[in-house]
Design brief:
Two copies of one chain form a homodimer. With 276 residues, chain A is α+β, with helices and mostly antiparallel strands. The first copy, chain A, is built from eight helices and 16 strands. In chain A, the strands form two sheets. In chain A, strands 8, 9, 10, 11, 12, 13, 14, 15 and 16 form a nine-stranded mixed β-sheet that branches. Strand 3 of chain A pairs antiparallel with strand 3 of chain B.
């Protein structure tokens, strides 16, 4: 099936979806994006994702079209591509800069993506995180900067890790593309309060978990993770995944994570039902 | 005059020089570049710039064509564009990634640029630097990541600064697009040894200065700069520029900087003469 992509106001075949090399995203890494999941043809949590894109764009001082227009474009793209399951990425860039440094009129790309859901083994056994001292620049912005984690991929493979876990000045922040939670021994659910991207799934999990458990956004020190009863990550593409090891330290994949995972799946199904 | 650009092995008109949005430079900020100056039709310090590009690309594990082929392409582009004065940028990217994260066959863009030489006022009076706590990720690589300094431009204008000066854990590293030097009271010329890009002009200035002054690549603490006799920056596009103020602290623009500037200009003229 031929895929279609929005470049600004024009829907073009995927193969024609190109930007000029003078765009600041390409030449200076200046841009932001958001990524949402499409399930049964419905884009999930559109309001939250578009709201975060707006926040990222505003912080980078890149004007976006109105949210209603973005939502219409999303819908048109889903229909044109007959997309049932997959993802949509909205990327806003620094535009074609005259001097190669000063942002100009932004370019907006809305594109359709497939993504690999977690394997059933990962869902059951959990994933391995390798800790790495790093603080993402402008962490509240979902910028296009993934230089360090991509550069670290061979190290990750060598250590047989599935993903990185960033810490800085002794504090845990996030994984490159997901948020991090621990379940303490008294079943309190903690996630870092600062230095990380405010994840849409993170927010949803906090709300769902709060109905049954004590939850807190708070500092998680590096030592704390080794005393955790359970640990898990949250993301748009992976939902909730248990963590079974951080560096050399095994962690139990336990009942709280499984329960939250079931709650999140039910919540997602109910979101889709409401759209129908 | 129509400009021409290389996209991989094809020379195309500037207006057609586009890359697909799935390139990792665009989607994940994964890429490196180098920039060299063209004077009287000759590319300056080609060997050094191509050598550094090779180093950046190797560190990012992006295969480059052989240096002889790159040099030939540079030459062909200069001739086709009848370029006498200006700049050439070579950008190597993470390529069209299948999964949006893993680097693939890189794309190579070689493009012609104009740049604004420093104003005679800046040359005479010097520039104002505003210090900012920041450590560039992978600082030895000339990556395309300029997210933070571009984001900080309004702050810089507000403080009436010309450029940023990065420091981290109390140590000075570099400016976003240039290296930093101080001249101490006993006329020793110092530049940071680590945490910064190994600049081509920096290396050249160290060599030229070493003929007459004591020079050292060493730690420069933040306090040291306020005791400096003189300070200056070096870059491909700006040569040597005196610094007249760092934050609220005025610095004399003195004779050593002017002497080094004259030495660098003579050295550049002699490089061009040798090519003729």
């Amino acid at each position: 099936m031929a895929q279609w992509t929005y470049i600004n106001n024009e829907m073009v075949p995927e193969s024609d979806a190109k930007l000029h090399f003078r765009d600041l995203a390409f030449s200076r890494g200046y841009g932001a994006f958001d990524f949402l999941r499409v399930k049964e043809g419905y884009p999930l949590f559109v309001k939250e994702h578009l709201g975060r894109l707006m926040s990222s764009a505003q912080q980078l001082r890149l004007p976006l079209p109105p949210l209603t227009e973005l939502a219409k474009k999303l819908q048109a793209l889903i229909e044109k591509n007959e997309l049932k399951e997959g993802g949509i990425r909205l990327t806003i860039t620094g535009g074609y800069s005259q001097d190669g440094y000063t942002p100009s009129d932004p370019n907006l790309v809305i594109s359709v993506h497939t993504f690999q859901p977690p394997s059933s083994e990962q869902e059951k056994k959990g994933i391995v995180l390798i800790s790495h001292e790093y603080q993402r620049q402008l962490p509240h912005i979902k910028s296009i900067d993934y230089l360090t984690p991509i550069w670290l991929q061979p190290m990750l493979r060598e250590k047989q890790g599935d993903d990185l876990l960033y810490h800085f000045k002794g504090k845990i922040s996030e994984c490159p593309r997901s948020n991090f939670f621990v379940v303490t021994r008294n079943r309190t659910i903690l996630t870092p309060a600062d230095g990380m991207l405010p994840g849409i799934t993170r927010q949803r999990v906090l709300r769902l978990a709060g109905k049954k458990f004590t939850t807190a956004e708070s500092t998680i020190n590096r030592e704390d993770i080794f005393n955790a009863e359970e640990a898990f990550i949250t993301s748009t593409t992976r939902g909730i995944l248990p963590v079974c090891r951080i560096d050399d330290h095994p962690i139990n994949t336990g009942p709280v994570t499984l329960e939250l995972r079931a709650l999140l799946e039910a919540d997602t199904r109910s979101y889709v039902s409401e759209q129908k």
